[in-house]
Amino acid sequence: MSRVALNRLSHCIRSTTYRDAYILRITRRSLSITMSAQQEFHQAPHKLLVIPGPIEFSDPVLAANATPGTSHVSPAFAPIFGDCLRMLKQVLYAEKEGNQPFLIAGSGTMGWDQVAANLMEQGDEAVVLNTGYFGAAFADCLEAYGAKVTKVTAEVGGVPSDEQIVKALESKPKLLTITHVDTSTGVLSPAAHITSLVQKHSPSTLIALDAVCAVASEEIRFDDWGLDVVISATQKGLGAPPGLSVLMASKRAMETFHSRKQPVLGYYLNWKNWIPIMQGYEAGTPKYFATPPVQLIYALHTSLKSITSGPSSLEERFEQHKQASAYVKDSLAKLGFGFVPLDRKIAANGMTAVKYPKGFAAADILPKLAEKDIVVAAGLHKAIASEYFRIGHMGITVTDKGRGDLDKILNGIQEVLKESGKSVSSA
Amino acid sequence: MSRVALNRLSHCIRSTTYRDAYILRITRRSLSITMSAQQEFHQAPHKLLVIPGPIEFSDPVLAANATPGTSHVSPAFAPIFGDCLRMLKQVLYAEKEGNQPFLIAGSGTMGWDQVAANLMEQGDEAVVLNTGYFGAAFADCLEAYGAKVTKVTAEVGGVPSDEQIVKALESKPKLLTITHVDTSTGVLSPAAHITSLVQKHSPSTLIALDAVCAVASEEIRFDDWGLDVVISATQKGLGAPPGLSVLMASKRAMETFHSRKQPVLGYYLNWKNWIPIMQGYEAGTPKYFATPPVQLIYALHTSLKSITSGPSSLEERFEQHKQASAYVKDSLAKLGFGFVPLDRKIAANGMTAVKYPKGFAAADILPKLAEKDIVVAAGLHKAIASEYFRIGHMGITVTDKGRGDLDKILNGIQEVLKESGKSVSSA
Questions:
Q1: Which residue of A has its CA nearest to B290?
Q2: Which of A69, A404, A407 comes nearest B57 by C-beta?
Q3: Does any CB of chain A come closer than 8 Å to the CB of residue B108?
Q4: What is the pTM of this model?
Q5: Per the CB < 8 Å rule, is B42 touching A25?
Q6: Which residues are substrate-binding (chains A, B) (predicted)?
Q7: In this predicted model, what pLDDT tens digit does every residue of B25-73 receive, in sequence order?
Q8: Hey, do A48-53+312-420 and A59-309 end up sharing a CATH topology, with the first three levels equal?
Q9: Do B137 and B115 form a contact (C-beta atoms < 8 A)?
Q10: Given this structure, which CATH class describes domain A48-53+312-420?
Q11: Nearest 5°: phi and psi at A345?
């Protein structure tokens, strides 16, 4: 019998009120406790989740998400939160003095609001590089906060040309945004190259990288590339359940925030309220503004630990994602599939946007794969939604090769094609 | 060996690439899998968490929070989300046509932003009834969105008088806010009575109840009392981990939203983006705006099920919280403790704000209780922070009497007093 069971049982026997009718029940319950949960937790059987996030989670991450009730200001929890902030800096190569990480209950989408609310003032200009659905939505968000937005929109599957970007920078906008991986197209923007263009043509422009589907699956060099904001979420490359907005701001971004002339529009997302909290947890002295998602922070901590201190270095991790991506894309190409990104060089490494072969539609593939316990995602980009589907290959699906996830996906697709009885030729 | 282990192992043996080096490892790992996680999960031994939230969570709730990776738009998940919205209506007695529930990744605090962003326009008037820290902060939030706020502040431990409230209503403000339980004082506002005052003196005024620390521990009759908004969070009476902003809006509140003249300031919190999502999930047809915290929704579902379909009715649940509160307060009074609320009639049933007896301070009690594995909370209200501490008694600590939590707390406090060697007399 475990210690908690013994404690409960002996307490129950000791106490003299509030219990008589329950002794029998608690005894029975305690006797069924045979092990400590966190040591031997194994998740339930389930369909393989290979959409571009949420992804598959490891047993230790899910066990951490089941951490018992814990005070958000307890000495036990404070260093866990602090470690997460420190490990996030490692994952992003964002170790410069003055970088400020934020972990706030919310979603990836909420990161756009953080940028818009804290860095933009009424009428400020932003250039949004649009490589799909998520670029368009980021622009909507900036406009909702009163920014004047110039959209530089690539053709579907492509990225904006250097000429387009340089032209948009002529007005010296306050902000330029890049969607690192737009999951609606599977396009990977050449972020390092774009930042070098900005630094050459409009060095005062802040650069925000929407890396919701890129952090910990694509290389991001925050300090080296001169990024000012990276936005992410937990449920993709970071390998923890959804529910946290993850953000890194540069010293320059924080200076821009601190020298605002207009007040921030909003309260929950106002960095003024969060700076003391994040700095408090990082220093080991928890402070209260709003209750953090304690269990999810434990889960993120477990995942970040495995990313930063696991058997592979970060460089090896990014290389593993590249290899997995090439393996998936090469295998699918051999089967007759095409891809949404116009060129392999601008295709994400953590996901693949796959065009249906001629004569096939979503109904011929997605439900058949689900019957084989493989969950991929339908198309999202309105212009081509019915023409393609999306496969995620991030996190343990890539790094824990013993799981065999990639072959399970590819074998599943191959079987579905075979069972269709149709012949396959490239679209 | 469990089914998942067998599946994995047999898949591993079948597949022909991406695995050779891993067979040994996966075999070893699979052999250690001895059971299905969700059937037999028991949380790890831990200190008893009895702060005014987060609270203790049941094993099934934590197991649900460890649900494997699941798509937010899957046919498995959609009815879970929909059920949560329906059960929330039950818990709040909010069954009228047109009521709109929202479950959005965030915190309780974020509920204030939802009210301010969606219901208020620049210059709109709000009356904030202030019974502690949380009333003051709600006012700050409303002002951040451009509202003109009149604060009706009670003395510490008290509630505003009817005269104060009626006077504040003379200007027919657009909104009046009530903190149902202000956890900084343990004061329970007489919400039903206050709403009757509003309906008599300014019926056009919308009424928002901040019930973060009240939903599912204090009776709330949304329809009968004529409430327009109830704000809550998951980690208190609702018995699930933190990370969700829980909100119910009346038909009248939604009409106010739909007839706004100015655009909503913000994007993530704009109800326009969420209405189709909530209505989609409620109808069983998931839609995407931002990824919901899937695991936490499963946890909330488990907790709401036990609240709405458990052995006790909702009425009995509220009665259990009243009895537990009386038991704690009576026992502490006998030990020589006083309370922050000036009158038992305005003392919360889900928590107790306890004054230290003469000659005792925080250091004499809180760390000693922690050594006995009992975690209570320090004072929060600035004016009296060093004079009191706070005990939470919500959820399974109250309803699962077999746990013996209340006696554990009371015995712990009694032992701490005894071990201090000091004599105790009322402050």
A1: A109
A2: A69
A3: yes
A4: 0.92
A5: no
A6: 390
A7: 333 333 333 334 445 899 999 999 999 999 999 999 999 999 999 999 9
A8: no
A9: no
A10: alpha beta
A11: -65, -25
